[in-house]
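Ticket #4471: complex job returned nothing on first submit. Input attached below:
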Amino acid sequence: MRKLALAAFFLAVALAAPAPGQDLRATVEAWVEANRRPLVEELVEAVSIPSVAADSANIRRKAEFLARALERRGFAAELLETDGNPLVFAERAPEDPVRTLLLYFHYDGQPVDPARWRQEDPFQPLLRDGRLADGANALDFAAARDLPPDHRIYARSVADDTAPILALLGAVEALDAAGVGLSSRIKVVLDGEEEAGSPSLVPAIARYRDRFAADAMLILDGPLHQSGRPTVSFGARGILTLELVVFGPRAPLHSGHYGNWAPNPAVRLAQLIASMKDADGRVTIPGFYDGIEFTAADREALEAVPDDLPAMMRSLGFAAADRVGDSLQEAIQFPSLNVRGLQSAWVGAEARTIVPATATAALDVRLVAETPAETMYARVRDFIASQGWHLVERDPTDAERAEHSRIARLTRSAGTNAFRTPLDHPVAARVVEALGEVWGELPVRKRTSGGTVPISPFVEALGVPALMVPTVNHDNNQHSPNENLRLGHFYDSIVTIAAILTM
Amino acid sequence: MRKLALAAFFLAVALAAPAPGQDLRATVEAWVEANRRPLVEELVEAVSIPSVAADSANIRRKAEFLARALERRGFAAELLETDGNPLVFAERAPEDPVRTLLLYFHYDGQPVDPARWRQEDPFQPLLRDGRLADGANALDFAAARDLPPDHRIYARSVADDTAPILALLGAVEALDAAGVGLSSRIKVVLDGEEEAGSPSLVPAIARYRDRFAADAMLILDGPLHQSGRPTVSFGARGILTLELVVFGPRAPLHSGHYGNWAPNPAVRLAQLIASMKDADGRVTIPGFYDGIEFTAADREALEAVPDDLPAMMRSLGFAAADRVGDSLQEAIQFPSLNVRGLQSAWVGAEARTIVPATATAALDVRLVAETPAETMYARVRDFIASQGWHLVERDPTDAERAEHSRIARLTRSAGTNAFRTPLDHPVAARVVEALGEVWGELPVRKRTSGGTVPISPFVEALGVPALMVPTVNHDNNQHSPNENLRLGHFYDSIVTIAAILTM
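Support reply: We reran it on our side without changes. The output follows.
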């Protein structure tokens, strides 16, 4: 059904018939064009407040600044106190809302290493006439005559994730100016600890459950697909981290005196890892991919993602990808078993002629909705045991060493589960439609994003369908020095959010 | 023939018939008993001279001290100058020598870390009434009434390798006192750089070739078999070290965004290592063990080595050994492929959720006489190439990354070849017989020692059959803090050397 509707919409676009949403786009774009300076000035003011989660005094200043800004746009706003930084909560509703949407943003930013920034202070925003990597010049913001789309603001937290908050403010103001009403009850929650793992978010549910009640949650965070096209993501993978230590002799042994006789834990670890994956990178642990199926609509969405895989491979420096899926998008619909680190004794100038005592692999298992952390931990553990390994949870005792020829220690993190909202969920489908209508092309639909987001446990605990609607430029240096926002992306995100507010 | 002779000798011992050598033993032991104090005093004086190869002033003092000590025992002694520390060369011959023996020792010792020693100065020898690890007490050497066999001297270089030099001096003096003549022309070379890899030894051949001419070389260095029985080793394994780096993406990638798609070099390295060895630790590279065969006499010698393998495994902390051979002694007759180190990205608290860019294995290939370094390097390299790997000698270029799906860098050391003298070589067999005669039991015969010795290139370059005759206690803390010599082993080594000098 939904697929038919989307196809019909596409047909309309193809025939250049007047499509719904084009009026809205023109209205909002005109308002943005006329209000570039105040929009950017308010953003600059917001990101001038240091926003590292550990800096509780400044982060509270920023929370209060944003609460007041929301109030100025007709929201009822308050700070919800937690054991950590406050959440900003705000609400505004039309008379007869179609639904309730919970919009999530975070107002904290990554920690900074000022020495690695190309400006004096990551919290003194700098305007540049393009991309630093392309040799852009710094401009005097106060004197800048114009703020064209290719200009950028360099500052910590500007793209991740303050700009989307300011874009919401702009969208509401633009709609109010045009006399266009909101269609949904809008609840806003601003997280002040996302870059610290959002430790206060799940506990806040117990205290503020009513505030968070909604038909769907939209997470306004992250960059657009690298094609630059509007993007909606229906979920995110979770993660379970594991450490696997294989034990050899009690202490390192001289490789001359004992090599060929004492068991080598580095070789044994290599053999164990090799037994878990085939030459194409597919996991061979029984059941690892159980339950993963794609509908025709899923396949259509996956195939429509405009990844330029040959260009990506050239850029990333490899000639052939693993074959877990037929494409990157398909691959990340599956759980992964990634060896993120190996260590045994020494290499390079430090190398010594020994049989090492231990060999360690750091693993991460990226989870999908069908493969929760507990299940996957059990599958990995049971597989290792089935290969003849005696598993321990601390160093083996003398008795264990005397009894078992293969001993390994497997330890784990608690894990963060994945979430995924079905492509045909009514709100999800309506967001896709609304973005298609306003932009004249269907957004990139990511059935699951590959990475893991701190919001996942909140989504799981609330039990509300969630979508991610990223808006900023892909090359924003997120989590790195010289984080930046391309102004054109900021202006467009106001249109995107206006479409959601009125859908 | 030789085997029959040994069997006949054994029979003689078994019947308690008066065996040749027992008179010699009684004579030398009586002399040693009467001369314990001057023997140990001279040893203490020798090891009081700091002996680290880099300390050229002191090491020359020690060379001169030892040259004078040899002269006092009737040797013509001289210092042979090299580009490094001098060699001490000395020679003494009977009127009608049966053969010429070149006796090799080294007068330098390992570097010291005084903070880890349980005495003020590793070059101020300390007498203890037993083993430090058993709680032995330090004694006043000057006041010690007796110097019984279980007392020990703690000092750097005392066991490795000064005591054997002093034992030679004692043996000559004891024989002279008893009026027993030497049977062979005895040439002595003392190396002053063994612990630094003996860099001046092979170059010295060009300048002093005549001095080194001999029918056989005996290397008087190292500990007895841990059973404490007299020991002769017919060779030593060589070593080739390799570094294998597997390349993944050009830079580490986010394991969420790219895991399951970007090839993981840690997994690929594990698979490559796993393809080289089977579950029993046997190398599966074609030709790796080619040419290795054992005669019946070889097997007899290997089986006669009194290794207590179950006790060793308990002590070393593993329940099952690799199965390259049926025993430790058999295993070290084969070349080994040892993974001595692994490294890729980070583990433990440093672990990051990435697909690493590279994964490195440090390998050592222990060589035997049948498997020289060049051949083994080619076998490993060709095997890796046959598994579909493109091998480079530096980091891959962009073009190589775009063309080859499996890229690895294999680098190597020059390598040190093994040496091995046949068990039935006349001088080797005579040494075994002579030790059997004087001690009343056949020595432990190690067909090949597992470790690699810096003397190997000298043996190879001279082209002289070489044997190792170790004499010091197995628990001497060689190369570690608190190096020590059990006096009983020192006294016995004088008997052993006397047997060789008169055989």
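The CA atoms of residues 340 and 363 of chain B lie 5 Å apart. Closing as resolved unless it happens again.
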